[in-house]
Amino acid sequence: MSKLEQVLILEPSGELKFKGPFTEVVTSNLKLNNPTDKRVCFKVKTTAPRRYCVRPNSGVVEPSSSINVSVMLQPFDYDPQEKNKHKFMVQSMFAPEGGIDNETMINMWKDADQTQLMDSKLKCVFELPPEALQALAKGKTNVFKLETSTPPPRKSVSAPSIVKRVPARPIKSVLFQNDLDAAKEAKEVAAVPPVKPNIPKPSPEAKRPVPQDDGLRQRKATPSDNTQTFTTEFAPVEQRSAIPPVLYLLAALILGFIIGKFIL
Question: What are the Basic and acidic residues biased-composition ranges (predicted)?
Answer without folding.
Answer: 204-217
